[in-house]
Design brief:
Largest sheet: 7 strands, mixed
Bound molecules: flavin-adenine dinucleotide
Oligomer: single chain
Helix content: 25-40%
Shape: globular
Number of helices: 15
CATH class of the largest domain: Alpha Beta
Number of domains: 2
Distance between the termini: 39 Å
CATH topology of the largest domain: Polyamine Oxidase, Chain A, domain 2
Length: 504
């Protein structure tokens, strides 16, 4: 009798959970080991004053019926289990440019028509832009759940085309350039590096439709763990993998956790940062050039965040996200300058299952470089010392001051607030230097920063945001590619579409 193949997944971030779900459905025995005391990586939430705060998943896109994330959620058995709310159709995101607020509207026609009201005479330019990003996003097969030719998985041209150069060539109107580039903080955009591929995929994702989880993104992690367990899989917290154990054929036969426990399996999938994974391999196991490439690839910047509990009924529920840049040029935030902290903010009101009329909490995010907190890097959560607390308070006041310029009186509405720094991100998700979105993509060297799931170790694959793209959609695609290594990518794509056809 054939033994059920056993897959061990290191890390329960979105990537690890999706792989765990797909592979457990496909008949593999799945074990997930998570180093933290909660599952989910960036899907984690935390509760303060009875308010549930998201940490790394404020909103998702393409979730209307028939759109790609809706198809994924159907296949993942998340529909009906996870609560979410559609954001304001006429302004899911609202951007302040030179003290004026500009909405991003949902749906391509709505997006173009709404924006044209703010940029008179630019209807055709906006239409050309919308067609361009739609064409780029729809040209990439796996993002549209079309069968994939693995030798042509990426759209070479859009990987190398620079997003800012395209926008600059499209219009000389600087305000419009800023408007079209304003969501660059959703991918830690850098003027000289960000490709049209990244820009178009993220913008298209949200323009198609934008949703916020009600009571936080932890539900997604909880639902995945439950679904994996229903498929016969198992998931363990507080289980940090610290070592691979090899057999004589240079295949991994087990992992060892920090507590010294051994877990044997036939195959291994790592949801850790690829470089952290490779660091656990002895020198001869992967090519030197590959190891050096992973080491030198820069990560995206980290962040500082405020999680604010709002006084009872002090603030009506806001069904949009808000962005404001300090500079008149929205790409300036991509060059971090601590003297100018905060260079932008993103404000995300929480969708609350208890109260739909009032906002009970919101979070505010801005960039922060790891070096700003490096002097505390050898400390642990809640034991970083009074000087660290003072540093956080000083930064929080600066950020709140900036937010107040756009939302006068907002500080008086706050009952209590909590903060996080790059060290918090590092310690809760295991990312290098608390990077927000993992490896930085650079259109000047487009292939260098894209990482394939398969490694030179015959039974080790990678998954997660570092492979291809971050975010709910990017990580879902990466996980699909990873699972494709075991069961065939086109088989999975067909299955997702077939299951969706039944509910359509
Ligand atoms: C502040 C912030 C805001 C964001 N906002 C959004 C948003 O609004 N919408 C959106 O779509 N995306 C957003 N993202 C991006 C999104 O959260 C991530 O791209 C995605 O969750 C990453 O998933 P992952 O599986 O790649 O990795 P992670 O979430 O980083 O998970 C990796 C997991 O591996 C575990 N691990 C690491 N090392 C080990 C080890 N040795 N042993 C065992 N376990 C280990 C970690 O503890 C962690 O649980 C945001 C990210 C951040 C940081």
């Amino acid at each position: 009798m054939n033994k059920t193949p056993h897959i061990l997944i290191i890390g329960s971030g979105l990537g690890g959970l999706i792989c765990g779900y797909i592979l457990s459905r496909e008949g593999f025995k799945v074990t997930i080991l998570e180093k933290h005391h909660k599952f989910g990586g960036n899907l984690q939430t935390f509760r303060r004053n009875a308010v549930e705060f998201d940490t790394g998943m404020h909103y998702v896109g393409s979730l209307d019926k028939g759109q790609v994330l809706h198809k994924f959620f159907n296949y993942f058995r998340l529909l009906g289990k996870v609560k979410y709310r559609r954001l304001d159709e006429n302004g899911f995101d609202r951007i302040f440019i030179k003290n004026k607020e500009y909405p991003y509207a949902m749906g391509y026609d709505n997006f173009v028509e709404t924006a044209a009201e703010y940029f008179p005479g630019k209807y055709d330019t906006l239409k050309t832009y919308a067609e361009k990003i739609r064409q780029v996003a729809q040209g990439i097969d796996p993002y549209n759940l079309r069968e994939v030719d693995m030798s042509q998985i990426f759209d070479v041209y859009s990987l190398s085309e620079n997003a800012f150069s395209y926008i600059k060539a499209l219009t000389s109107d600087q305000k419009l350039q800023n408007y079209l580039s304003a969501l660059n903080i959703l991918y830690a955009g850098e003027r000289d590096k960000t490709s049209m591929y990244v820009h178009a995929l993220i913008n298209n994702h949200y323009i198609e439709s934008a949703y916020r989880f009600v009571d936080g993104s932890r539900q997604v992690a909880d639902a995945f763990v439950e679904n994996i367990e229903n498929n016969g899989g198992e998931a363990f917290k507080n289980s940090e993998v610290t070592k691979f154990i090899f057999d004589d054929d240079k295949k991994i036969k087990a992992v060892e956790t920090r507590s010294g426990e051994l877990f044997h399996a036939d195959f291994f999938v790592s949801n850790m940062h690829p470089y952290n994974t490779i660091k656990l391999l002895s020198p001869g196991m992967v090519r030197k050039a590959y190891r050096e490439r992973l080491q030198r690839l820069p990560d995206t910047i980290s962040s500082f965040a405020i999680y604010a509990v709002v006084k009872d009924k002090a603030m009506e529920y806001l069904n949009s996200n808000y962005y404001s840049h300090k500079d008149n040029d929205v790409w300036a935030a991509g060059i971090y300058d601590k003297a100018r902290f905060p260079q932008y903010f993103g404000l995300y009101p929480l969708a609350d299952g208890i109260d739909e009329k009032y906002t009970r909490g919101f979070s505010v995010m801005t960039y922060m470089d790891y070096d700003d907190v490096k002097r505390w890097e050898n400390t642990t959560v809640e034991n970083r010392g009074d000087d660290y607390e003072a540093f956080k308070e000083e930064r929080a006041q600066k950020l709140l001051y900036f937010v107040e310029t756009r939302f006068p009186g907002i500080r008086n509405k706050i009952k209590a607030y909590y903060t996080s720094t790059p060290l918090t991100l590092r310690d809760y998700t295991g990312t290098r230097r608390g990077s927000i979105f993992g490896i930085m993509r650079d259109c000047n060297n487009s292939y260098e920063s894209y990482i394939f799931p398969r490694t030179k170790v015959p039974n080790l694959c990678l998954t997660g945001q570092n492979l291809n793209l971050h975010g709910m959609l990017g990580v879902s695609i990466s996980a699909l590619l990873t699972c494709g290594e075991f069961v065939g990518i086109n088989y999975l794509i067909r299955k997702i579409n077939e299951e969706y056809a039944v509910i359509e």
